Batch of 2 targets.
Target 1
Amino acid sequence: MTGIISREALKKIRKDLKEKGKKVVFTNGCFDLIHAGHVDYLTKAKEFGDVLIVAVNSDESIRRIKGKTRPITPLSERGFVLSNLKAVDYVTPFEEDTPFEIIKDLVPDILVKGADWSIENIVGRDTVESNGGEVKTIEFVNNQSTSNIIKIILERFGK
């Protein structure tokens, strides 16, 4: 039940997609509790190209970034859900705290992040732009986040 492919397998797929002239879009994130905001974001990201690759933080990476109580959902389940969304073509994990290495390995045509990131601070921007690609941001349509969902659950069902 993973839906996740290895970075090595994805590097070969990326090479084939490039040879076929397909425009590859890349984004990344934790995608801990997948919600409507995630689906909207991924759907909009896919509209920038032909193929959408989602790099998802490993469980260990999320713990380092967000603390020992996260993730709520393990990588295998996050990968399964993401890989079954209509907009998503490939899901691959990364262990690092940032996606710099995987962006360097894949060199997508379009790098996408949420508009809460300023373009100059987006990890991998230099790699993508120096190879002729573009960096784009997407406005969030609602205030949904995994942190907000956790807060609501605690408020409604906590002690």
Target 2
Amino acid sequence: EKIIDLPGSIFEFGCWYGANLILFESLRAIYDPYNYTRKVIGFDTFNGYEGISGNDGNGSLIKKGQYSVTEDYSDHLNNLISYHQKENVLSQKNKIDIVKGDASKSIVEYLKNNPQTMISLAYFDMQLYAPTKACLEAIKPFLVKGAVIAMDEINNEDFPGETIALKEVFGLGNYKIYKSKFLPDRSYMIYE
């Protein structure tokens, strides 16, 4: 609801099985159904963690390949996305995309190929420091004033990478960060 009056697309970094991606598309279809310029774009390797660094901690879930999906899952997710698009108004307009690959590289290519991009919501669920930092840096010039940046594992000792990346790119004292009332490590900030 915080982005309804803002132009710009919704970006998700770390889709995994696509539950949040489809949720964002459903909310877009409910609250902003005729705005075909507000796309939902998801970035993921679908192969799980790669390139773990010292900033990522040593929690039991920090290991190569963690959060991978089954081999043919991307086909299923594409079918699900296709169904959602057909059931919404302006179904002839593509309003949801998946960018498969290393998000720290594919975000740069995506933004280069789509210079018209404006971002009103960016949701980070990659947990790892390096890709989170690279994506935060890449999207910063594309954020509209008032954009929401949401983080899935902030202030979480098992996944310190997201917090370290956020501190380095935006600084904790520069923006008010709001925590979810439902999940303690889900938080968001408003880009002012």
